[in-house]
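Quick illustration for those who missed Monday's session on complexes.
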Amino acid sequence: PSAGLGAPLISPPLAPVKAGPPPAATLLATDNRRSESYYETKGTVFSALIEAIDLAQLARLDADAAREEIRDIVNEIIAIKNIVMSISEQEELLDDICNDVLGYGPLEPLLARDDIADIMVNGSGTVYIEVAGKIHKTGIRFRDNQQLLNICQRIVSQVGRRVDESSPICDARLADGSRVNVIVPPLSIDGPALTIRKFTKEKLTLEQLTRFGSITPEGGEILKIIGRCRVNSIISGGTGSGKTTLLNCLTRYIDDDERIITCEDAAELQLQQPHVVRLETRPPNIEGEGQVTMRDLVKNCLRMRPERIIVGEVRGPEAFDLLQAMNTGHDGSMGTLHANSPREALSRMESMITMGGFSLPSRTIREMICASVDVIVQAARLRDGSRRITHITEVLGMEGDVIITQDLFLYEIIGEDASGNLTGRHRSTGIGRPRFWERARYYGEEKRLAAALDAAEIADESLPR
Ligand SMILES: Nc1ncnc2c1ncn2[C@@H]1O[C@H](COP(=O)(O)OP(=O)(O)O)[C@@H](O)[C@H]1O
Ligand SMILES: [Mg+2]
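Prediction with magnesium ion bound:
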């Protein structure tokens, strides 16, 4: 990101200039938690740097040259002020200062790590990250809420927005594709809250999910067949349960000659096929105009001669349009939605349509859901941080007013081991002929499907009872 040099980001340090060298040992941020004296030293160096540097000139340099320039001056300041530091401490301080002047400040080291899924900043003093499914508190902090707000401002300015009291909520995106949400006071009470869902270039594959134990090889095989054979699928799960990842996995098995249109709030999916049109919604601008909703996109999709429509996240009335698409020859359309079980996914779809202002009797809506959705794949993030595919469930039809479903695969939690990890197992339910059997046959995949279902049953028999 280019530097907004001269912007209020470069604010004078809070700490007063202190005479004498700080104790060097405390400068080492071994546990990521920096000491007060580190911040004081940094403050001293920072204010001297701001006095010494020509910001206008720095702004004309590219990032590397600017970093070099800052390095020279910082080294000089450290020498003049007689600050005692080891080379590695000096490097750390230099990085830290460059990050403040040229980038996203204390967030930079977190943004540089690719093992982090989410970064959650709750005001200047509290930063959490999610790594491998678990949430940890870090020692990272911002100088104060003003510095944090400045960084939020720098982030949202890249999508032409600003956050302030009159417009305190904003979605944005980092240059690397990471999704950002900012909410600032007075709505967030303890300082700006910044949430970053980091973009992972290397999307997980079904093979990897299998290796992680998120699904069995047989279950994975069935998902591949579902992806290929144009089975209308809904992926359901909680926040961060792996819905988008799973949707992306399923799309890999779509044949190359299909015309696919994707609709997303922020483009995350990475389709491998050649014939793809990617669409993205647009939030309203500062004047509240120009919004393009998911529903607008999905409706428009239907006029674009799609073969499949993929909706990143179904949250509202677009559920109706997606179901219609599924029901009118766009077989193999897919979408994710937020629900904790396949059953709840069905009722969520119904309520999204009801609340969308379609005055249809609930029975009609249910019939429409039954006629459209073939399979619900449920993802879950369990309390030990592991992510599992807990259900592959088929929608069969109606019995009276009730939608009937049938599970093909289930994940059962058995217990907890000594280290707090959950133990469990995937098992097939012994269904030999899923409802999409004919469809699999049409695509010449029925042998593979039968083999996967058989293998799943055999694998089940070897499980402890
Ligand atoms: N089965 C899995 N095992 C391990 N990590 C996963 C798995 N599925 C997803 N993830 C990771 O979890 C994070 C959230 O996944 P994502 O698909 O974006 O969730 P959702 O769309 O449900 O919010 C991502 O960093 C992703 O790489
Ligand atoms: Mg998602």
